[in-house]
């Protein structure tokens, strides 16, 4: 067998198979391999005419099929399977070769794998890939980490198979060293959770408070999708809401069990944010809302609890309310992106990654699940001021939130009065109000901590750290 393949893909389930086809359709010779060899044979049988595939059955054959330095992409289930595959292939590789992990790995695992393989001279490129199976085939958003050297070799190939933004720019950038790519992919997914939760809350308000049927709500989302909320998630929301169940003739959304599942990347985003001390309250509420929905027994046992029943609005009032919900959704969305980008900045600082936030927002403009017109504007904000401390410090976003806030508050007040749960909207507004508050009750918290634990506090009028002798005569001493 000649070593002719420019890239190899091992792990040919939906993602790996479609990425391999994407490389082949773009003119690359692709070696393909899967633990269960029938998947490899099926791929070549079904799609062999799309390009140059080299089907291999053993690890040795697979590695031998790759030109040097070798580019070997792993698309297996994240976690132990990734380690098993690395263990199988690494001994067959040589210094300078690259292993690209395109699975949804935890960035800490990626850091460990990168360190271990670096000792062998192998570049380990943890790469976030978003866009689902369609994206993998037609162009995903790609977030590679790893060394600069590996990006010089891989970048042009990834640029070719990636999604392209409206201005033609490929949705891939070298995010930073070691685990930076998987970290950014993790936060992407956290933001995705928040986006979906906020859309869900808007939907429920439009149904329960405005009194619209799912098909009418779908029309409202379609209209929103022509404005500043233009995004893939709003577009598919309209599709899902207008879908009718063939078996019952009912709206599809009414026959689906209302318990949301999750695979873990949203949870990781929140866990890491807690470690980094970054308030990602909107993302956290989105994760918790999925968790609450899944507690079927608890929910069943709680149905009798007292609370108001929403009373649907009349026609003109409903339309006016829908406009206000759009404002609330947009303002809350600005806050979740603000929180997500804060986490990326904090992760970059903690791990020494030097992540270009503008470049990250640019590669999310197409291909990935959170793709949206909005991301062009985030990029513009970071381009204008790369050291922007927060998206809310950008004048345009601050002005838009200022214009939206009366409606945002009104929508939340209505939701609270009518007993419609809106944890995402509420967390976003509290974050906003928390940041703008001239004084926070944290001063009282510090006093309590000093009282029960002598934890000390700082004063507004003098440098230093102090403690009050609470159990004694309450004089203040320097700590
Ligand atoms: P899965 O996550 O379902 O993984 C199936 C693949 O892993 C098969 O090729 C399977 O081989 C292989 N595999 C397993 Br399981 N254990 C293995 C082991 N010990 N050794 C070797 N191979 C093993 O596939 P997927 O949905 O295509 O996703 C692939 C990766 O991409 C995952 O990390 C996923 O999180 C990530 N991702 C998925 C999406 C998406 O939309 N699905 C989006 C973005 C990222 P077999 O055929 O022999 O069982």
TrEMBL record:
One of its GO terms (molecular function) is phosphogluconate dehydrogenase (decarboxylating) activity. It catalyses: 6-phospho-D-gluconate + NADP(+) = D-ribulose 5-phosphate + CO2 + NADPH. PROSITE patterns: 6PGD. Pathway: Carbohydrate degradation; pentose phosphate pathway; D-ribulose 5-phosphate from D-glucose 6-phosphate (oxidative stage): step 3/3. Keywords: Gluconate utilization, NADP, Oxidoreductase, Pentose shunt. Pfam families: 6PGD (PF00393), NAD_binding_2 (PF03446). NADP(+) binds at residues 11-16, 34-36, 76-78, 104. It comes from the Bacteria. One of its GO terms (biological process) is pentose-phosphate shunt. Belongs to the 6-phosphogluconate dehydrogenase family. This is 6-phosphogluconate dehydrogenase, decarboxylating.
């Amino acid at each position: 067998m000649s070593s002719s393949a420019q890239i190899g893909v091992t792990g040919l389930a939906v993602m790996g198979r479609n990425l391999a086809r994407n490389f082949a359709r773009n003119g690359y010779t692709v070696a393909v391999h899967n633990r269960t060899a029938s998947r490899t044979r099926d791929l070549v049988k079904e799609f062999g005419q799309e390009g140059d595939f080299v089907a291999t059955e053993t690890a040795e054959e697979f590695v031998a099929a790759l030109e040097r330095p070798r580019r070997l992409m792993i698309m297996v289930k994240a976690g132990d399977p990734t380690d098993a595959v690395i263990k199988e292939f690494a001994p067959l590789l040589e210094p300078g070769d690259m292993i690209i992990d395109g699975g949804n790995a935890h960035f800490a695992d990626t850091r460990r794998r990168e360190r271990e393989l670096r000792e062998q001279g192998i570049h380990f490129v943890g790469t976030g890939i978003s866009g689902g199976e369609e994206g993998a085939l037609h162009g995903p958003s790609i977030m590679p980490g790893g060394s600069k050297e590996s990006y010089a070799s891989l970048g042009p190939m990834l640029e070719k198979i990636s999604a392209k933004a409206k201005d033609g720019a490929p949705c891939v950038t070298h995010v930073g060293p070691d685990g930076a790519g998987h970290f950014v992919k993790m936060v992407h997914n956290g933001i995705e959770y928040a986006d979906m939760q906020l859309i869900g809350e808007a939907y429920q308000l439009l149904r329960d408070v405005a009194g619209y049927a799912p098909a009418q709500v779908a029309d409202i989302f379609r209209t929103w999708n022509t404005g500043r909320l233009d995004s893939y998630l709003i577009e598919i929301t309209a599709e899902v809401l207008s879908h009718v169940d063939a078996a019952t003739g009912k709206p599809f959304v009414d026959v689906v069990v209302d318990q949301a599942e999750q695979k873990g990347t949203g949870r990781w985003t929140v866990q890491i944010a807690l470690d980094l001390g970054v308030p990602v309250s909107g993302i956290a509420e989105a994760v918790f809302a999925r968790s609450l929905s899944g507690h079927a027994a608890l929910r069943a046992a709680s149905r009798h609890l007292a609370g108001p029943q929403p009373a649907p609005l009349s026609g003109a009032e409903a339309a006016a309310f829908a406009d206000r919900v759009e404002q609330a959704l947009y303002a809350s969305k600005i806050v979740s992106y603000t929180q997500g980008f804060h986490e990326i900045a904090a992760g970059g600082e903690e791990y020494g990654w030097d992540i270009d936030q503008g470049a990250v927002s640019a590669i999310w403009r197409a291909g990935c699940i959170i793709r949206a017109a909005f991301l062009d504007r985030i990029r513009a904000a970071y381009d204008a001021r790369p050291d922007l401390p927060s998206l809310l410090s950008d004048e345009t976003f601050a002005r838009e939130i200022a214009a939206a806030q009366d409606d945002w508050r009104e929508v939340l007040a209505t939701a609270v009065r009518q007993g419609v749960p809106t944890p995402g909207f509420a967390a976003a507004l509290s974050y906003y109000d928390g940041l703008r508050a001239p004084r926070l009750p944290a001063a009282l918290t510090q006093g309590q901590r000093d009282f029960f634990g002598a934890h000390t506090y700082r004063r507004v009028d003098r440098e230093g750290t102090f403690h009050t002798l609470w159990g004694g005569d309450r004089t203040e001493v320097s700590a």
